[in-house]
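Justification of computing resources. Each target in the renewal requires a structure prediction run like the one illustrated here; the chain below, 159 residues long, is used simply to show the kind of job we budget for.
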Amino acid sequence: MDRERLKEFTFRVTQASRTELIVIMYDVILSDTKAARKALLDGDREGYEREIKHAQRFLNELMGALDYQYEISYDLLSLYSFVNKSLTRACVRQEIAELSAADNVIAGLRSSFREIATKDEDGPVMRNTEQVYAGLTYGRGSLNESSLDLNGTKRGFMA
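Resulting structure tokens:
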């Protein structure tokens, strides 16, 4: 994952509710499979495998977070297992069709959880993070983004 994508996902995580965190994880997986596709087309086998393995780590986190007291967890586990097998086959066989099969399942789940996230009123999971008020300013030959913490609080651990 390149620095720009990492920065974007990090910002989203700091502002996300529990449901939005799942959407972000789906976005990371989709971003990784897209990067894997590009790496394969560019002939970068090592980059291809790295991106797929990164996607699988996020998929494993989703599998580990399932709460089996709810019936839907078993259905999600089946879907995640299918995606994991598709990613493994894609890695071994170097087939884009396998990546597409994984993407289709994750994209469907993402749209469902995105809809649920719009109704989630719990607020951000992370507390004591920087309140972001973003703005763009023009610099000499560049466009600069800035943020401002109006609360005057310091970030980090508070005892």
